[in-house]
Design brief:
The complex is a heterodimer of chains A (636) and B (402). In chain A, 58% of the residues lie in helices and 3% in strands. Chain A is an all-alpha fold. Chain B is built from 13 helices and twelve strands. In chain B, 35% of the residues lie in helices and 13% in strands. In chain B, helix 1 (4-18) packs across helix 2 (23-29) and helix 10 (240-254) runs parallel beside helix 11 (275-297). By secondary structure, chain B is α/β, with parallel strands linked by helices. Chain B has helices spanning 4-18, 23-29, 53-56, 63-68, 100-104, 123-132, 143-146, 190-201, 206-227, 240-254, 275-297, 368-379, 384-387, and strands spanning 41-47, 57-58, 84-85, 91-92, 108-115, 159-162, 177-179, 261-266, 304-310, 330-336, 343-345, 366-367. The chains are: A mainly alpha (636), B alpha/beta (402).
Chain lengths: 636, 402
C-alpha cells in the first residue's frame, strides 16, 4: 500500500512538473487573453484607465488603438484639458521673457550692503599696506563721501593703529548703516502681525475662500503685496488665485515651475494623447534636470517644450542634440563652465583656474547614450568633454540662450570611441560626438532596454531588447518604429508582462484620479502628495532621474503613504480634487473593485474585504479606498 | 516595578509559548540582546547645505580668522556675543551654550578640519558621497545601512529615519523605515488596516508582500508606542523641527522598539549672504535640540553615540555679501556616554595661505571615515571594511572609549 501511495505521488509530481516549468520559464511567450490585452495596453500606454476606456479600446481593437496613440496628431485633444492649460501663461514664453518677468530675486528684496568705494588699484593697495600715519593722512585728504564709505566697509586691518577718534567715527558710521539696513528690511517685509489685526489674521488662517479674497481686496496695491509676501502658502490652499499671486510676489521662479507642474499633471489626467504624455515623462526622466539648481528652475519650461516633447516619436539623435544644446542641460551638468585649460593666461596664486568640466561628458555617456557598461573609458569621457568645451550659455540669468565660445574651445584632436575628430574644429566637434554616440550599438541596446523596462517589465527578456535594438539601428534611431516593435512583440502582450510593473507615485496618484473620474480644479495638493510619496516632480537631484523599476517604490513609507493617500482621496479631503463617490452607492465590493480596477478583481481581494467587513456595511468611500490602497492597484 | 524592557521580554516569552505573541512584541524584547546587554545605538545627524564649521567651533586663537572675517567672525570669549571658551584655542559659537555642560562632563568630543578628500563643491555630489561612505562615487546603499549586523528577526524599527524620504545613508539591504511623523504613522481606519494587511499578505507580487508585511508590523509597533503618552525627561526642551525629529528618535528608543540606527537631518546651512544672524538662530535650534536629546535620554546615553556631519565646510574668508562660499574642511561632533569628550581631536592645519586648501578653504586633515569608522568599529563592534569599502583606517583617534 505504501509503495502504491509513493507511485501516486510520483505520478502527481510528474504531471505537475512540466506545467510548472512552462509557467515559470515560458510566461513571456504565453499570449494574453483578448480581454486582458485591452486592460494591459491601457495600463501601459496611459496613466491608468478611467470609466469607459475599456469599451473604447475594445471597440477599436487593441492594434488600432495602439496605432492611434502612436500618431497623436490623429487624436483630437480633450477640450477639458485646453481649459485647464489656458491660464498657465508662462508655458509658451521664451527663456529671456521668463527671466525678465520672473527674476531670481526681486529687486525689492535686496538690501544693499556697503562695499568699498571704487579706488584706483594702486591707491587701494597703498591704503591697505601702508603704515598707520600714512593711512591717517590719506583718509584726511579724501572727500567726505569716500572717507565715509571706507570707514563703513573697510576691513579691520585698515583701522589698526588709527587714533581713537577715527575709530569712534568708524564705529558710529557702521552702526548707523546697520540701523538703516534693518529699517529697510522691515519696510520691505514687515511681519504679518504688523500688517493685520488679530481678527484679520484669524480670517487668513480659518476663514472661507471668499472671506480671504474679500480681505485682501480691501487693501491698496502696496499693502496687498506686502501681505502676500509674508503670508503662509498653506493658508491659501483653498484659494488658488491668491496662492499664485503670493508665489509670484515672493518666489517668482518657483511660480514658473509650479505652472510647469500644473501643465504636467493636467495633461497626465486629462489628455487624450496619453502615450505622448507617458513618453514625455519617460524622456524627461531619462534626460533628468533638477529644478533646484539655479536658473534651471525656469529653464525647464522651454526644455520640456522644445527639447523633449517634439521628439518623442521622432529620431533619438535629434532629441539628443536638442538636449545637448539646451541651456537647462548645459547649466545642470556644468558644461557651460567647461573651458580648455589656458596656460597662456597668468592667474594669481591661490585662485582656482577654470578648466574642463567632465560632468556632462560623463553623464552623456553613462546615462544618456551608451550606459555605464556600454564600453567607454575615462579617455572617452575626457575627449567628449574636450569636444563640448565652448558649448556655453549666453548670460544664464538674463537671456539663457545657447552660445558657442571659440575662445575656450579645445582645438586639439579628439578620439571618441575609436573615431578621430580632427584638430582645429569648432562647434561641430560636439555635433560629431552626438552622431557617434547616437549610432553606437550600445546606445541602441541601452535605450531599448530602458523603454522595455518602462513598458514591459523591470527585467525585460533579452530577445525583446535585441529586436528593439535592431529596429533602432536599422531605422537610424526612429523612436516610433522602436515603440512599434515593442508593442507588437509577443513579449509585450504576454502573461509575463501582465501586472509585472509597480506604479510610481505619479502613476499611482494620477491613476487613482483617473479611475475615480475625479474633477480636478487645483493640482497644488496633488503635487505635494506625489512629492510626499517620494517623487517630487522635476525635483530629482541626481542626473540618474527616478528609477524605472519597482524596488524604489516598495518600502514602508511608500505603502503607508499610498494607503493614507487613498483614504484622503476617497473621503474628499484633497483640496482641488472632487470625487463623486455616489456612483458606488448600493454596490457591493466586487462591483466597486471591478469599476475602479477596470477588470475583474482578484479573489484574494474580495475574500479579504468580505472577511474584514463581516456583514457590516462598508461605505462606498471605504470600499473605494480599500481598492486603491490594495496591492493590486499598485501594480500595472 | 520591573523595568519595562524586562516585562516585555518575559511577557513575550510567555505569550510566545502560547503561540499568541505578535511578532512585534517578540522583537521589542529583542531590544535586550541574548546576554541581556542592551544594543548599542548610533544616531547620525546630517547638516545639509555645508555648515560653516569655522563659526560653529571657532579657532579664536588664530589672528587670521579675524582678519579674514571682519564682519562675520565670532568675537573672542569674554567679549559681547563672544564664543564659549573650550580649551584656550577653540570656542563654541555662543548659540551652542546648551552643549557646554556635556563638554565639561566629557560627553562631547569635537573633530575639526574633518571631511571628505573628494574635491567636489557640489552639494548634491558631496552629500551623496558622504552618505554612501564612498568619496568620489555614489553607491546604491548607505554606510549606516551597511553597518547594521546580519540578524535574524530584527525589529522592524531597527533603522529609522525621521522625514518623508529614506536618506541614502540608510538605504540598502537591511530594512529601514522612514517616519515623517510618529503620530501620523498609522492608518486612519483600523478595520481597513486589517483588511489591507490580509490583501498584502496574499498578493502575487513578492516585493509588495514583503514591504506590506514590514509596514503593518512597523505601524502596529508605532501605534502601541503612540498610545503611551510621552514627556521628555529631566526637563529636556526640544526646539524647532530638528528638535521634533530628535524627540521622535528619543521616544522610539525609550519605547524599546529595537532601534539600532537612527538618522535625522537639518537643512538651511548654505549661508552665502548675511551669515551671522542666520547661523545664530539656526545653531540655537541645533544646540538646544542636541542638548535636549542628551538630557532626555539620561542614563541611556551610555549606549548611544550621536555624530554630526556636513558635506563640506565653507570658505575661510567671508565673501562680499557678509556670507561665505562652499569650502572643504569642516567640524564634526560626537556626543554620548561612550565618548571620550572634552577634547578637540585632529591636527589643526592653520589658516595661512599655504595651509588653506586651494588657497581658500580649511583643509581636510581627518577623513570623515576615520570618525565614522571608529564609531562603527568600537561602538557597534562591526568590521569597518564592510562599511567603508576600499578605505584603510589609520591609527584610531580615540574618540570612543575602548
Amino acid at each position: 500500500m505504501k509503495r502504491l501511495g509513493c507511485l501516486w505521488s510520483l505520478a502527481a509530481l510528474l504531471v505537475t512538473l512540466p506545467t510548472f516549468l512552462i509557467t515559470a520559464a515560458g510566461r513571456f511567450d504565453q499570449k494574453l487573453s483578448p480581454e486582458r490585452q485591452v486592460i494591459h495596453v491601457l495600463n501601459r500606454l496611459t496613466f491608468g484607465p478611467g470609466p469607459g476606456d475599456v469599451e473604447q479600446v475594445r471597440k477599436l481593437t487593441v492594434e488600432k488603438w495602439i496605432d492611434l496613440q502612436l500618431h497623436p496628431d490623429r487624436i483630437s485633444e480633450n477640450p477639458v484639458l485646453e481649459n485647464k492649460l489656458k491660464p498657465l501663461g508662462t508655458l509658451q514664453l521664451a527663456n529671456w521673457q521668463i527671466l525678465e518677468k520672473y527674476p531670481p530675486i526681486l529687486p525689492a528684496f535686496v538690501v544693499k550692503v556697503p562695499t568699498m568705494p571704487p579706488l584706483a588699484p594702486q591707491q587701494m593697495a597703498r591704503l591697505l599696506n601702508c603704515s598707520a600715519e600714512e593711512r591717517q593722512t590719506m583718509l584726511a585728504t579724501m572727500d567726505a563721501e569716500t572717507r565715509r564709505l571706507i570707514l563703513a566697509a573697510g576691513p579691520p586691518p585698515l583701522l589698526e593703529g588709527l587714533p581713537d577718534d577715527v575709530q569712534q567715527e568708524a564705529r558710529k558710521v557702521r552702526q548707523a548703516d546697520q540701523e538703516v539696513r534693518q529699517k529697510e528690511s522691515r519696510r520691505l517685509m514687515p511681519p504679518l502681525n504688523e500688517l493685520l489685526s488679530p481678527e484679520q489674521i484669524q480670517t487668513i488662517n480659518h476663514g472661507t475662500a471668499e472671506e480671504k479674497i474679500a480681505l485682501l481686496n480691501s487693501f491698496d496695491a502696496e499693502k496687498r503685496l506686502q501681505i502676500l509676501r509674508v503670508i503662509s502658502l498653506q493658508s491659501l490652499t483653498d484659494v488658488p488665485q491668491l496662492r499664485r499671486e503670493a508665489l509670484t510676489a515672493r518666489q517668482p521662479q518657483e511660480f514658473v515651475n509650479s505652472e510647469l507642474i500644473e501643465n504636467k499633471l493636467y495633461r497626465a489626467i486629462y489628455s487624450s494623447r496619453q502615450l505622448e504624455e507617458v513618453l514625455v515623462d519617460f524622456w524627461m526622466n531619462h534626460f533628468n534636470i533638477f529644478n533646484g539648481k539655479g536658473p534651471d528652475r525656469v529653464l525647464l519650461t522651454s526644455f520640456e517644450r522644445d527639447a523633449i516633447r517634439p521628439y518623442v516619436f521622432g529620431r533619438f539623435r535629434d532629441m539628443l542634440l536638442a538636449t545637448a544644446r539646451h541651456p537647462a542641460m548645459l547649466y545642470y551638468l556644468d558644461n557651460w563652465q567647461s573651458q580648455v585649460p589656458r596656460d597662456d593666461i597668468p592667474f594669481p596664486p591661490g585662485v582656482r583656474r577654470p578648466g574642463l568640466n567632465e560632468n556632462y561628458g560623463r553623464e552623456l555617456l553613462e546615462l544618456h547614450t551608451l550606459g555605464v557598461d556600454g564600453g567607454y573609458t575615462q579617455n572617452d569621457v575626457m575627449a567628449v568633454a574636450r569636444a563640448f568645451s565652448g558649448w556655453t550659455i549666453y548670460d544664464p540669468q538674463k537671456f539663457a540662450e545657447f552660445q558657442f565660445n571659440p575662445a575656450v574651445h579645445d582645438r586639439k584632436e579628439k578620439v571618441v570611441l575609436g573615431h578621430a575628430i580632427p584638430a582645429m574644429g569648432g562647434e561641430q566637434d560636439a555635433v560629431e560626438v552626438i552622431d557617434i554616440l547616437a549610432h553606437h550599438p550600445s546606445t541602441a541596446k541601452f535605450i531599448s532596454k530602458e523603454l522595455a523596462q518602462r513598458f514591459v517589465s523591470d527585467d525585460p527578456p533579452q530577445t525583446l531588447v535585441d529586436r528593439m535594438a535592431a529596429t533602432f539601428t536599422k531605422t537610424d534611431g526612429d523612436l516610433r518604429a522602436v515603440l512599434q516593435t515593442m508593442f507588437s512583440s509577443p513579449e509585450f502582450l504576454s502573461e509575463g508582462a501582465w501586472q509585472a510593473k509597480i506604479k510610481s507615485p505619479l502613476e499611482m496618484v494620477v491613476g487613482a484620479v483617473r479611475a475615480l473620474n475625479a474633477d480636478v480644479t487645483d493640482v497644488f495638493i496633488l503635487a505635494q502628495k506625489i512629492a510626499d510619496l517620494g517623487e517630487p516632480l522635476y525635483g530629482k537631484l541626481e542626473p540618474t532621474g527616478y528609477p524605472n523599476t519597482g524596488a524604489a517604490w516598495t518600502n514602508t513609507a511608500s505603502v503607508l503613504g499610498r494607503i493614507n493617500f487613498a483614504t484622503a482621496l476617497t473621503a474628499g479631503q484633497i483640496a482641488g480634487v472632487k470625487v463623486d463617490i455616489s456612483r458606488f452607492n448600493f454596490k457591493g465590493p466586487a462591483a466597486v473593485a471591478g469599476e475602479v480596477l477596470n477588470m475583474p478583481p482578484p479573489p484574494s481581494m474580495l475574500t479579504a474585504i468580505e472577511k474584514g467587513v463581516q456583514g457590516k456595511e462598508a461605505t462606498p468611500s471605504i470600499l473605494a479606498a480599500l481598492v486603491i490602497s490594495s496591492p493590486d492597484f499598485q501594480r500595472r | 516595578m520591573f523595568p519595562r524592557r524586562y516585562f516585555l521580554r518575559y511577557s513575550a516569552i510567555a505569550m510566545a509559548g502560547l503561540g499568541t505573541a505578535p511578532s512585534w512584541l517578540v522583537r521589542a524584547a529583542a531590544q535586550v540582546g541574548q546576554t541581556g546587554n542592551k544594543r548599542k545605538i548610533l544616531v547620525a545627524i546630517f547638516q545639509r547645505g555645508a555648515a560653516d564649521g569655522l563659526n560653529v567651533v571657532v579657532p579664536f586663537f588664530e589672528k587670521l580668522y579675524y582678519d579674514m572675517r571682519p564682519t562675520i567672525a565670532v568675537p573672542q570669549p569674554g567679549q559681547e556675543n563672544g564664543g564659549i571658551d573650550l580649551d584656550g584655542r577653540f570656542a563654541l559659537h555662543p548659540s551652542l551654550q546648551p552643549l557646554k555642560p556635556f563638554w565639561d562632563s566629557g560627553q562631547l568630543a569635537i573633530i575639526h578640519a574633518a571631511g571628505s578628500p573628494d574635491p567636489t563643491r557640489s552639494h548634491f555630489d558631496a552629500q551623496d558621497f558622504m552618505e554612501s561612505g564612498t568619496p568620489g562615487k555614489t553607491s546604491e546603499d548607505g554606510w549606516l545601512n551597511r553597518a547594521l549586523a546580519l540578524d535574524s528577526g530584527p525589529s522592524p524599527l531597527r533603522a529609522i529615519s525621521i522625514g518623508a524620504q529614506l536618506p541614502r545613508t540608510l538605504r540598502g539591504n537591511h530594512q529601514a523605515v522612514a517616519v515623517n511623523n510618529l503620530q501620523q504613522f498609522e492608518t486612519r481606519n483600523k478595520e481597513m488596516a486589517a483588511i489591507l494587511e490580509t490583501m498584502y499578505a496574499s498578493t502575487a507580487d513578492s516585493r509588495l508582500m514583503a514591504s506590506g508585511k514590514e509596514t503593518f508590523e512597523a505601524v502596529k509597533m508605532i501605534e502601541s508606542i503612540n498610545r503611551n503618552p510621552y514627556a521628555p525627561a529631566n526637563g529636556a526642551q526640544y526646539q524647532g523641527g530638528f528638535g521634533n525629529a530628535l524627540q521622535q528618535i528619543a521616544r522610539l528608543i525609550k519605547a524599546d522598539a529595537g532601534v539600532e540606527a537612527a538618522f535625522a537631518d537639518i537643512g538651511g546651512w548654505d549661508h552665502h549672504v548675511n551669515e551671522a544672524p542666520q547661523l545664530t538662530s539656526l545653531l540655537r535650534e541645533f544646540g538646544a535640540s542636541l542638548a535636549a536629546f542628551t538630557r532626555d535620554m539620561g542614563d541611556r546615553m551610555e549606549d548611544i553615540a550621536l555624530v554630526t556631519m556636513s558635506e563640506f565646510g565653507r570658505t575661510a574668508r567671508e565673501d562680499g555679501n557678509a556670507g561665505t562660499d562652499h569650502g572643504h574642511g569642516n567640524v564634526m561632533m560626537v556626543l554620548g556616554g561612550p565618548v571620550r569628550g572634552g577634547k578637540v581631536y585632529g591636527r589643526w592645519p592653520g589658516l595661512g595661505p599655504e595651509q588653506l586648501y586651494e588657497g581658500r578653504d580649511l583643509a581636510v586633515i581627518t577623513d570623515f571615515r576615520e570618525v565614522l569608522g571608529e564609531l562603527v568599529n568600537r561602538h557597534l563592534a562591526r568590521d569597518v571594511s564592510q562599511v567603508f569599502p576600499g578605505y584603510i583606517p589609520g591609527a584610531p583617534l580615540g574618540v570612543i572609549k575602548s
